[in-house]
Write a structure and sequence with these properties.
Blueprint (H helix, E strand, L loop, with lengths): L12 H11 L9 H17 L6 H18 L3 E4 L2 E4 L4 H27 L11 H4 L10 H32 L2 H14 L5 E2 L10 H16 L3 E4 L8 E4 L13
Antiparallel strand pairs: 1-2, 3-5, 4-5
C-alpha cells in the first residue's frame, strides 16, 4: 500500500503525529499503529528526499513508533501478583499525545490573550502628589466679612432671578403673536364688510408691547392678503378691512 504525504510545516514530531491521526479519523485511544507508523516514516523519507533537515526529535519518535509496532506483534501479556495482566504498548504513546494536546491548547489560549493585549493601551499613571500632599485650605473670615460675602451672594442671586424672570416674560409675550392674529381674524369674520379702526384691535391700549404686537400682526396679515389696511393721511387713523383670504381657514405666519 502506498501513502500520499502532503508536506507542510509542523512545530514538532507530535504535531505531525496528531495531524496524521486526526487526518485518518482515528481515535487517540485506538490508534492503528501500523498505518500511522508507515505514514510517519513516509513523511520523514519525503523530507529527506527534498533535502530538508530532519531534527533528532522526529527520528526519536520514529524509533518509538517502530518499537511500539513491533510490540504489537508479540503477545501483550505480563505476569503480575494477581496473575496474567494484558498490556497495550500504545498506552504510553496515548498519554504523551494527550499531554501534548493539553499543552498545545494552553499555548493557543496564551497566544489569543497576547493578540488581545496588543490592542489594549493603558494610560500612564499620572503624578497626583501635587493634589494629594497639599493640605486642605480653609477660608479665614471674621463674622463681619462673612456677613458681607453672604449679602453679596444674595444680591447677585436676586439680580440673576430678575433677569431670568424678565426674559421669561418677554418670551411668553412674543409667543402671543399667533394668538393676536387669530383674535383679529375672528373679529373680522364676525362682521364681514365692516372696517375696524386700529385701536379696536388692540385689547390693552395702555401696554406698548400689546400695541406693537398688534401692528406687526396686521403687517403679516396684509402681506398674506388676509386683511386690507388703509391710512388716508400721515399719522392718520389706520382702517382694517377683511381681505380676499380672510375665509381660508387657519392663517400661517412666519415667526
Amino acid at each position: 500500500m502506498s501513502y500520499k504525504v502532503k508536506l507542510q510545516s509542523f512545530e514538532g514530531p507530535f504535531d505531525l503525529l496528531v495531524y496524521l491521526i486526526e487526518n485518518a479519523e482515528m481515535s487517540i485511544y485506538d490508534i492503528e499503529i501500523s498505518q500511522i507508523t508507515s505514514q510517519y516514516l513516509e513523511y520523514i523519507k519525503a523530507m529527506e528526499e527534498m533535502d530538508i533537515a530532519v531534527s533528532t526529535e522526529f527520528m526519536v519518535l520514529a524509533s518509538s513508533l517502530i518499537e511500539i509496532k513491533s510490540k504489537t506483534i508479540l503477545p501483550r501479556v505480563s505476569t503480575g501478583v494477581d496473575g496474567v495482566v494484558e498490556e497495550d504498548p500504545r498506552d504510553e504513546l496515548v498519554s504523551r499525545i494527550l499531554e501534548y494536546k493539553r499543552f498545545k491548547k494552553a499555548a493557543e489560549v496564551l497566544k489569543e490573550q497576547e493578540e488581545l493585549s496588543e490592542n489594549i493601551f493603558s494610560k500612564p499613571q499620572e503624578d497626583l502628589s501635587e493634589y494629594i500632599n497639599n493640605p486642605d485650605e480653609y477660608l479665614s473670615l471674621d463674622l463681619k466679612q462673612f456677613a458681607n460675602a453672604f449679602t453679596a451672594f444674595i444680591d447677585k442671586k436676586q439680580r440673576v432671578e430678575a433677569v431670568r424672570k424678565h426674559y421669561t416674560r418677554i418670551e411668553r409675550e412674543k409667543a402671543t403673536m399667533e394668538g393676536r392674529i387669530m383674535f383679529i381674524v375672528n373679529k373680522l369674520r364676525q362682521k364681514i364688510g365692516r372696517a375696524f379702526k386700529f385701536g379696536e384691535l388692540v385689547p390693552n391700549k395702555k401696554d406698548r408691547y400689546d400695541v406693537v404686537v398688534t401692528f406687526v400682526s396686521l403687517l403679516e396679515m396684509a402681506k398674506q392678503r388676509v386683511v386690507d389696511v388703509k391710512q388716508t393721511r400721515t399719522y392718520g387713523t389706520i382702517e382694517v378691512e377683511p381681505g380676499e383670504r380672510i375665509d381660508e381657514g387657519e392663517i400661517q405666519y412666519e415667526q
